[in-house]
Structures are given as C-alpha cells and as structure tokens.
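Saturday, quiet lab. Running sequence design on the structure tokens for the scaffold JK sent over.
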C-alpha cells in the first residue's frame, strides 16, 4: 500500500474535489472523525466545512491547515469498505490525527480501489499537528498495516501506479469535466513555484494553461485560461476561463500556491533528493530516451521544450514521489536546458542514421560487402519512442521564472509524446 501526504492551505478545495466524486457517483464517504454524519447520509461541502471551522480556534499558527492523504492498496488487494475505513482510521490515529476532524472518502473512478482522507492540521491551541519525520512515521505505519491486513507491500509496486488520472481525450467530449478532473487534484496535491512548472505538470494529461491580460472598462485584469490539448500538444476547442472551475484554480490562488510550495519544497529537501536521482540517471545514460526511461523508473517525468529547429530551451522535472515540479535550473546548471541540449544534440543525427541505414546497407551490399561492416550502426531509439519528448506548446523558463513568449509551434516531425506516470 502506498501513502501520499499533502499539506495545503485550501481545505475547501480538498473537500470539494472529493465530494464531487461522491456527487457524481464515483465515490462514497466511508467514515468521519469529529464531523457530524447527516441523518440521511448525504454529505455536503457546506455542512462539512461548518464542522471543520467549528473545531478550529480563532487563531492558528500554520499557513497550511489542511492535510490530504491518499492510501492506495495494490490492485490485487481486495478490501471491503469496512476494512478500508478501519485502515484509514488506524493510519490517522497513529500519525497523530486521532483527535482531529477528518473525512474518509473512497474513490471508485478507476479500477484500483483507494481512499482519500481530508482533515484539519489545526489543534485546539492553534498549533499544527507535528509533521516531524512524518514520511518516516507514515512508512512504518504502512508496513504494520500491510502485515495486519495481509496486503501486498508497497515495495513490490511499480513507481507511479499508486494514483492515476485519466488524460483528457478530446474524442470523448465533455471537455470541461475532463479538464476539471485533471486540474483540481493536481493543483491541490502537487507543488510548483511558477506558472511554467504548473503548465508542464498539466501537459502530462493533455491540458494547457495560459495567463491572459487586458482591460475591461478601463480597468486592467489578469486571469487564466485552460485548454484541452490533442496528442501532439495543439490546443483543441475554445479555452476555458479559470472561473468555471472555482477561485482555487485562478491566478491569485496559484500565485499563493507558488509561495507555499517554495517553503515546503525547501523544508522537505525535495530539490536535493531530486537532484541526486537526476544526476545518477544522467551519468548512467547516453541518449535522451535512455535518460527518460531511467528517470521514469524512479518516478520522475522529464518535460522538454524545443523550438522549430529542435533546440531545447526549457527543461522541467516532475517528481511524482515527492509531488513536486522543478525547473531544471533549480537543480543546478548541469541540468539546465542549454546543457541538456548540448548533451542530446546528436540524438537527432542518430535518429536520421537509423532511418537511412537500411537503404545504405542495401546499396553497399550490391557494391562491396566488406565496406558494409565499416558503416555506422543505427543508434538507440530516441525521443520517438514511448518515453519521447513532450509538447511544443509550452513557453520557456529561465532560472525558475516564466517567460511570456508566444506559443511555440514545432515542425510536424518534431512533435513527440511520451508516457504518463503518476
């Protein structure tokens, strides 16, 4: 069983995300702690928020009063709702939340049964529940629960299989709902420090985001629009205003998120641990595709942005284990776009050689077979395989900052996709 823990400032947003699953028939409430259960069994966000607020003192000392946890058994583990509820309660009790209000939700929107727990970190005295060594304590609790309930150990699961979202598919219609099902959980559960990093994360699921500026009756305004993307990263249909999805997905809320993400990423040492993994993968591989594959085995996706000539001008690493998105320059100069471009500049040449090799060999066999043995061999498969490069609609980042440059459209043969992992 895999546990994922996120601290956040938006308790309402976390409740809303889970309650919408229930309202759509894709989930249910398995249990609560210090939250009143309605007589008719029908929960509402408003009533639940009232109970949460009732338990909070007037003065709190944390910027992140909400905790959102997902507990994900292996697909082969078959558990009853009562067992899932018991696991959720025991986990929260041992993590230090036995006296805190929380709600246990079961999600049924994917084949893998799993639960989400939304709770308050604010204690009666206004201080947050301690998160000291939280990940280590969580891992120990999970191991005990696996033994108690005879579950498949988390160490036996592949990276990224614990929690998955469906990418937007324009052929299925209802784009607004599809986009909402992607941006709401990702914006709540991942950490990112710029709009470019957020954009890179969403692009894994065929969603784009852009900032818009203008004037309305002489007053300046700023906002965000979300778009569905096709398999090649091109915008499909009309963009959707962020207001359609609530304030939590607007520009102001995200900019607040940038600040809190910066603090937690620093406090948790995410940059250092990500740098170590990326460095090891880079030193042990030769081509871009090999580099991507090595990263994905460790739960990290690589997002590269290229111009029309195929030059890399932006690199972002998405660490799914830490739920954090980091521009390459944050990890160090050796992981910046310029360095990666130089490192993988010969990949396109190998790609061309691979395409031309059969024809060359046929001609050479007709003339002099001994010469054939001296020809360059086809290179390893590069970014055209399942771990290929990302989308061309992303704008570049420099030293962690966004550049408001026009959307880049690449030549058709340069548009490539790569596998998703979450």
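Result came back. Writing it out in full:
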């Amino acid at each position: 069983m895999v546990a994922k823990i996120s601290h956040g400032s938006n308790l309402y947003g976390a409740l809303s995300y889970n309650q919408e699953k229930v309202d759509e028939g894709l989930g249910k409430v398995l249990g609560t702690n210090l939250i009143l259960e309605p007589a008719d069994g029908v929960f509402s966000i408003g009533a639940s928020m009232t109970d949460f607020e009732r338990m909070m003192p007037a003065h709190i000392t944390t910027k992140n009063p909400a905790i959102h946890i997902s507990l994900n058994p292996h697909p082969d583990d078959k558990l009853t709702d009562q067992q899932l509820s018991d696991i959720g309660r025991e986990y929260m009790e041992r993590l230090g939340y036995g006296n805190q209000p929380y709600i246990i939700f079961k999600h049924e929107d994917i084949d893998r049964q799993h639960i989400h727990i939304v709770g308050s970190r604010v204690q009666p005295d206004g201080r947050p529940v301690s998160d000291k060594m939280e990940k280590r304590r969580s891992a120990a609790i999970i191991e005990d629960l696996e033994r108690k309930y005879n579950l498949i150990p988390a160490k036996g699961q592949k990276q990224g299989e614990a929690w998955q979202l469906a990418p937007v598919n324009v052929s299925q219609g209802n784009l607004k709902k599809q986009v909402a099902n992607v941006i709401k959980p990702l914006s709540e559960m991942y950490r990112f420090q710029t709009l470019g990093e957020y954009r890179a994360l969403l692009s894994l699921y065929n969603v784009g985001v852009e900032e818009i500026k203008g004037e309305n009756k002489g007053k300046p305004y700023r906002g965000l629009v979300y778009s569905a993307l096709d398999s090649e990263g091109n915008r499909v249909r009309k963009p959707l205003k962020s207001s359609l999805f609530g304030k939590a997905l607007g520009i102001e809320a995200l900019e607040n998120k940038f600040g809190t993400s910066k603090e937690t990423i620093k406090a948790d040492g995410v940059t250092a641990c990500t740098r170590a993994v990326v460095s090891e993968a880079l030193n042990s591989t030769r081509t871009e595709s090999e580099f991507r594959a090595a990263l994905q085995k460790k739960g990290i996706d690589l997002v590269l942005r290229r111009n029309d000539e195929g030059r890399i001008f932006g690199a972002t690493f998405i660490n799914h284990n830490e739920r954090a998105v980091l521009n390459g320059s944050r990890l160090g100069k050796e992981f910046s776009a310029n360095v990666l471009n130089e490192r993988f500049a010969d990949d396109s040449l190998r790609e061309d050689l691979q395409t031309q090799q059969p024809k060359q060999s046929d001609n050479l066999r007709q003339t002099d077979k001994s010469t054939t043995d001296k020809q360059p061999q086809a290179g390893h498969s590069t970014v055209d395989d399942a771990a290929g490069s990302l989308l061309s609609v992303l704008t570049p980042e420099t030293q962690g900052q966004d550049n408001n440059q026009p959307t880049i459209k690449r030549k058709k043969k340069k548009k490539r996709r790569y596998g998703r992992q979450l």
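Notes for JK: The first helix runs from residue 11 to 23. Confidence is low (pLDDT under 50) at residues 158-162, 351-422. Ask whether to fix the surface positions before the next round.
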